[in-house]
Amino acid sequence: MIKTLIIDDEPLARSIIKDYLAQYPEFEILQECNDGFEAVKAIAEHQPELIFLDIQMPKISGFELLEILESPPAIIFTTAFEEFALRAFEQHAIDYLLKPISKDRFDRALQKYLSNKVPQQDKTKKLINTLQENKTYIERILIKTGTTLKIIPIEKIIYLSADDDYVNVHTDNGDFLSNKTMTYFESHLDPAVFVRVHRSFIIRIDQIVRIDPYERDSHRAILRNKASINVSKSGYPKLMKALGN
């Protein structure tokens, strides 16, 4: 049996996919999910081999959901917006289905999945990497802790710090560990708002209260929350430029 999840905020769309799949006894629908939060828990619990994933969903999008999955399954995207579908299809998705989904198009997508010789997880990982490379400046960070999701708007971030293989996202409401890298955040945060001042620190420019000299050729940035952040010799010119000095 091929373990399958249906992730879509539209009950009618889920019902159509479920009806079409009923004609394929090799597929087992383990759960239907209304949004990305439900999906994170369901994927962790069931470890599906295939998911039908809506791109435009409330709370978090289908693309955002993919980026926080550690072992992503194969994906057939569903969407009412053709530009999203074409983007998904061209970026290594197994296939996509435009809503309203026709039975003929659904059958072709299933046959493509069943006949595909490329490891499905490899295709999904390539899709995620492509999405991350092409993404413009992010507006929020999704933190996954077990099966719990936390959404952090960019304007809530004070600074970020390296923490072994993770990045600690510091906010007024606490600190949260992300599995993204400092390099990822440096390239995906707006440089007009954030600056990397040290290999271990990225700070929000408007959180800086003052900059103090510290030892030879280095400084410390004092932030509004009283945090003292090391500014390296190479980071100092970048910080000065960001401040307009």
Describe the protein's architecture and organization.
This protein is of the alpha/beta class. The protein has two domains: 2-134, Rossmann fold (3-Layer(aba) Sandwich); 140-242, LytTr DNA-binding domain (OB fold (Dihydrolipoamide Acetyltransferase, E2P), Beta Barrel). Helix content is 33%, strand content 33%. It contains eight helices and 15 strands. It has helices spanning 11-21, 36-46, 62-67, 82-90, 103-115, 120-134, 182-188, 235-242; strands at 2-7, 27-33, 50-54, 74-79, 95-98, 140-145, 148-153, 157-163, 166-171, 174-178, 194-198, 201-204, 208-213, 219-223, 228-231. The strands form four sheets. The protein has a five-stranded parallel beta sheet with strand order 2-1-3-4-5, with helices on both faces. Strands 10-9-8-12-11 form a five-stranded antiparallel beta sheet. Strand 3 (50-54), helix 3 and strand 4 form a beta-alpha-beta unit. It is elongated, with a radius of gyration of 22 Å.
Going by CATH, the architecture of the largest domain would be 3-Layer(aba) Sandwich
Fraction in helix:
25-40%
H/E element sequence: EHEHEHEHEHHEEEEEHEEEEEH
What is the name of the CATH topology of the largest domain?
Rossmann fold
**Structural class from helices and strands?**
alpha/beta
Count of spatially separate domains: 2
Distance between the termini: 63 Å
Strand content: 25-35%
Number of separate strands: 15
